[in-house]
Every structure is written in C-alpha cells, then in structure tokens.
Amino acid sequence: MSRTRHANSSRPFRRLRLASLTAGLGAALIAALAVTGCVRLSTFDANGLWKVVGDQCVPNARDKGQPGPCTTVDFQKRYAVLKDISGRAQYLLIPTDRVSGIESPDILYAGSPEYWAGAWSAGRYVDDKLKMTLAPTQLGLEINSSQQRSQNQLHIHVDCMRNDIADALAPYRHDAPGSWRWATLDGKRYRVTRVTSLTDRSNPFRVVERGLDPQQAMATQTILVTGAGPDTARDGWLVVNSAQDMEGGTGTAEGLLDHSCALAKAQ
C-alpha cells in the first residue's frame, strides 16, 4: 500500500515536470521556427521563395539594414542570395523583382539584370561555408525548366560540381566560343558551348535562347554554368543546356551538382 500511495503521489510531480518540459520544447520550437520557418516555407509553398525574398529580405534590408533571412540583398543589381535549407553549402540567387522562371521574357530584354554574373559572384558564400576556395571548374550554377521546379520565382542554384561531371566537361574547355557540341552527362543528352562572359550577349539565358529551334521554348530548358578552366578571365565558362522535350534530354541539370560537396571533404 505504501508503495502504491508513493507512486500515486508522484504522478502530479511527473505531470508537472512533463508539462514544464513540453512548454520548454514548445518555446524552443517557436524560437527555431521564428528563425527558420520562413525559409522552410519555400519547401511547401510554390510561392515560398518569393514570400521570403519579397516579404522579408527586401523590407528587412531596406528598413533595418539587415537582409535576414537572406545572406545579402543587392538593390542595384536586383537580386538576393539565400542559403538553401538543403545542401551543405548550396545557395540560391533570387531576383528581388517578381520573375516566374526561365520562361519569363523579363530575363532576355536588353538591360535586364545579369543574374548569372551575380550567381557566379555568390560562389564566395559557398567558399565561406566550406572554408575553402573552389576552383572555377568545381563551382556550378543551375536553373531548372518550368516543369522541373518547385518554385514560381526564378532561382539559380549555386553549389559544388560533381567531380565526375567536371572531368567529363574537360574536353570542352578550349572550344571556340559560340559553337555547340553534344555531350552525354549522367545518361542524358546535353549540348555545351563556351562563353567568355556571363553578361550581355554572353548571358547564358540569351545564349541558349538564340540557339533554339523555332518549335522549342525556353520554358522546357535547363541550364548549367561552370568554369571552363582554372582562370575564368582567360578560360571563360561552359554553358551546358538540355531540354524536357529534347530526345534523350532533361528539364533539370541539378543532378550534375553535388549538394554534399564531396570534393571539399576529400581535401
């Protein structure tokens, strides 16, 4: 009987401790969501990235001088950079204007923001996260077709290249700019060209659009950009392109990136 009474008498104490613990965990969860919830929203909401950038990063940078939850907001160049929730060191470049994606005519007109050049510059955040400096051939930028994306706001992935893909692209590093050659990468059909700039006529959006057949559309395209050699000022960049409606092609080149950045672990 005494044991029973002792056990019963301890229940209110255990309930009190449990309630206290639950309240503590709830407070911690609320605090965590206050920091990360806005970014996690993009996982479930097709307009999530725009809500993060347009509703939080831009006003925070404008009114408070702090771009959080973004890493940076560049009002002059009209883009923000945000750490993606997936990937060891993956970042996203996102316009501060409402731009749907690769199919948008707003990325092609003369004087439109040079998002690719901005994305390449954002590679320094990947370096910072990895605590090392990637070679240009180890850094990749990628955008998905309209059918292969989860977000209705243009975003360029900035991350590590897969080692095997970087090796497979080596034969194209000295190609004459403006010529396309075909390649099979990760079992899919791509075409590859070299550019000496990421702006103006060499902007990868414009390079790909100029090379499309009349029946092809930008909406079905995927583009990957990586360094053509160890010095982009001398070697330039490779533009790698495929399409959802191309025989043997694909609407996403994201699989050519390595979100685990294995190349950094090996060094």
Main traits of this protein?
phospholipid biosynthesis; single chain; lipid biosynthesis; hydrolase; disordered N terminus; transmembrane; HIT family, subunit A; 267 residues; alpha+beta; CDP-diacylglycerol pyrophosphatase
Total DSSP E strands:
9
State the strand order across the main sheet.
1-2-3-5-4-8-9-7-6
Strand content: 15-25%
Give the topology string: H per helix, E per strand: HHEEEHHEEHEEHEHEH
What's the CATH topology label of the domain at 89-265?
HIT family, subunit A
Which regions are unreliable across 5 or more consecutive residues at pLDDT < 50? 1-42
What do the pLDDT scores average to? Answer: 87
User: What is the name of the CATH class of the domain at 89-265?
Assistant: Alpha Beta
Structural class given helices, strands, pairing?
alpha+beta
Which architecture of the domain at 89-265 does the CATH hierarchy give at level 2?
2-Layer Sandwich
Structural summary, described in words:
By secondary structure, this protein is α+β, with helices and mostly antiparallel strands. It has a domain at 89-265: HIT family, subunit A. It contains eight helices and nine strands. A nine-stranded antiparallel β-sheet has the order 1-2-3-5-4-8-9-7-6, sandwiched between helices. Strand 2 (79-83) and strand 3 form a beta hairpin. Helix 1 (2-44) crosses helix 2. The chain is globular, with a radius of gyration of 23 Å. The protein starts with a helix and ends with a helix. Residues 1-42 have low confidence and may be disordered. It is found in: Cell membrane.
